[in-house]
Amino acid sequence: MQDLENILTNAASDHRMAAPAEAWLFIADALRKRKKRRAAWLFLSLFALIFIGASSSYFYFKKENKNSIQNTVLANNKNDIGNSVPINEDKTEKEVIADSSFSKTNINRKITTLLKKEIKNINNTVNNNYTNKKHKIIENIRMNGVLEQETVFEKKSLIKKSKSKTSVRIIPASEIEEILVTEIAVTEPNTKINEPVITNRLATAQKEDSIKNNIVKKEIEIEKINNKEKVSPKKKSNWNIYLAINAGALFINSKNIFQNRNESLVGINQIGFTSTSNSSASSTSNLANANYQTGKQLSISLLLKKESNYFKPQIGMYLNYSSFNLKAFKATGAILDASTQTLDSSQTGNSLYAAKSTTTSNTLKIKNNLIQIGFSIGASIPLYSFKQTNKILLQTQVIPTYNLSQSIQWYDKTSTRYFTSKKLDNDVNVTQSTAILWQTNIKNRTVLIGPYFNFNYFKINKSLSDVSNIYTQSLGAQLQIKLKK
Amino acid sequence: MAHIKSIDEKALLENCLLNKEWAQKELYDLYSSELFAICIRYATDSNEAKDILQEGFIKIFTHLKQYNGSGSLMGWMKRVIVTTALNYIKKHKKTINSPLDYSNETLQESFDNINSYINTKDLMNAFMQLAYSYRTVLGLHIIDGYSYKEISQIIGIEEVACRTRVHRAKQKLKEILQFENNTVAIKNN
Q1: Which of A211, A247, A326, B103 could serve as a FRET partner for A313 with CA atoms 20 to 30 Å apart?
Q2: What is the pTM of this model?
Q3: Is A260 left (phi over 0), alpha (psi -120 to 50) or beta?
Q4: Average pLDDT over every residue of A406-429
Q5: Which one, of A42, A475, A41, lies nearest residue A299 by Cα?
Q6: Region B22-40: what's the mean pLDDT?
Q7: Which residue among A11, A17, A358 sits closest to B54, beta carbon to beta carbon?
Q8: Measured between beta carbons, which residues in chain B are less than 8 angstroms from residue A30?
C-alpha cells in the first residue's frame, strides 16, 4: 500500500516542464519598460518640483521688489504730498505713484502730478505774497490813517481751477502796470513812480508771469492729453486670441477594438483577422483580460475668447496627435470558438488576432497614430479669484473632429508585415474636454496652466457590416498663452 | 540543477536586485522549468500556463527585495507563482465551478487500495488528465497544502463542496491510474 498523497506531492516537486524560450523575451521586455517608466516619472517629478520652486521664487521676489519700491516712493513723497490731491476720480495721488506698472497713461499722470505740485507751490507762494501785501497795505493804511487811499487788492490768481476743466486768465500788461503803480504808491510812498521804476517792476512781474505761463502752458497740454484720453479712449477689444497646448497620456481599452466581431474570416483588411483562404467560419469574441493600454496625446489649438468678468465663451481650431500601441494575441492555425471561448485548433489555415493583455510567441503590436483636426466650442467660468490678475477657471469644450489618418495599422513581429485596417469612420468623432486652469500674469502676458481630462470617441469601420466604437480617455497638462499683451 | 550553492545564489540575488539582465536571465534559466510545471497544474491550457509563468516571473523580479532570506529562494518563488496562478483561478471561477455529479459518493473511500507500483511520471500524467476543476482543488490541497477553507474562499464554493470535490478528484485519479495499469497489462499480455 502506498500513500498516494505523499507520492503525488513528491511527484509534483520533481515535476519539470521546459518553459517556452520566448517567455523570457516578454519578461525582459516588460522589465525594461518598467525601468523606463520609473525613470520617466522620476524625471517628470523632478521637473515639476523645479518648475514649482522656480515659479514660487519668481513670484515671491517680484512681490518683495514691488513692495520695496512702493515703500521707497511713498517715503520720498510723503512730505510733498501732504493731503492727497485727486488726480482722477478713481485713484489718489498716493495710489498713482505707488502703482508700479508703467503704461503711457500712468506716465502722463505722474507728470501731471509733479507739475501740479509745482504749480501748487508757486500758487501758494504767489498767493502768500499777495496776501501778505494785502495785509501790509491795510496795516499801513490803518497806521498811517490814510483812509482815502485805502485800496484793497483782490487776490488775483493767475490760475483758476474749476471742476470740469482748467481755465486760464492771463493778466494783460496794462493791468499789471496799473496794479504796480497803485501798489508802489501805497506801499512805498517815498518811491518816485517813474518809468524806469515801473519798467523794472513790470519786468519782474512779467518774468514771474512768464514762469507761470510756462507752467500753465504745460498744464494746458496735460489737460489736452487727459481730455483726449477721455474723448477718445483706447477701445479695448473684448475678444482675444490664445494659443493652447495639451500634452498628456492616452488610455484605450483594446477590448473595444475587437469587440462584437461576428464576421467571416475573409480578407486582410479587417482588424483582428487575416485569412489565407475564404472561410465560412465565423466567430465572436468576448475577450477577457483585455487591458487598458496607454499612449500619448499632443494637441495644439488657437482659441478666440471673449473677455468678461464671469462667463467667457470661446471658439477655436484644434489639431490633435494621438499615439498608442495595442497588444494582440495571435494563434496561428486556430480559431476562437464562440461557445467555449477557447482556441479550437481543428481549424487550420486561418490566423486570428484577439486582444489579450499578455503576449505569447505570436505577439502583435498594433501601432496607431491618429491625427485629427477639428474646431472647438466651449466656455470658461471663474471658480475663484485672488489678487487682481490671478484666477482659477473651469473650462469645458466640445470638439468635433475629422480623422486625417484614414486607418489603423499594425505590425506582425513574426511575419514582419504591416496590416492595415479598414477606414476610420469620419461620421462621428468627438472629444469632450474639461480643464481646471490657473490664470496669472507673467511679464504682462496672460498665461493659463492646469490639468485637463478628455473623453474621446471615434469609430472604426472594420468591415461592411461591423463598426466598432472606440472610446479613449486622456489626461495631461494644458498651457494657454494670450498672444497679445 | 534545481539548486545552486548558497554563495552563488546570494551573488545572483544581489545582481538581480541591481536589475542586471544577465543575472535575471540566469535565475530564469535555473528555475523556470520547475515553476512552469506549477503553472501547468493550474492553467486551463498551455498558453495560459505561459501567461502565468510570465506574470509570475515579472512579479518575482519586481518584488525580489521582499525576499528576506528566511526559507529558500525556490520556496519563495513557488509561493509567488502559486499566488499568480490563484489570481488566474479567481478570474476563471466559472470554469472551475462547473457543476459536478456528486451522486453515489462515499466519503470513506481513499487512496489506500492502489496495489500496483506507481511511478511519478505516470502519476503526473494521470494528474494532468484530470478535469481542470478537479486538478485545481487537488493540487491546492495535496501539493501546495492549502486548507479546505482557504480553497473554498479562493474558488468561491462551500467548504463541504470543496471537501467533496477533493475526494472525488482522488477517486478519479485512482480510476485513471487503474485504467492505465490495466491497459499496460493487456498490452504486455
Answers
A1: A247
A2: 0.38
A3: left
A4: 53
A5: A475
A6: 90
A7: A358
A8: 54, 58
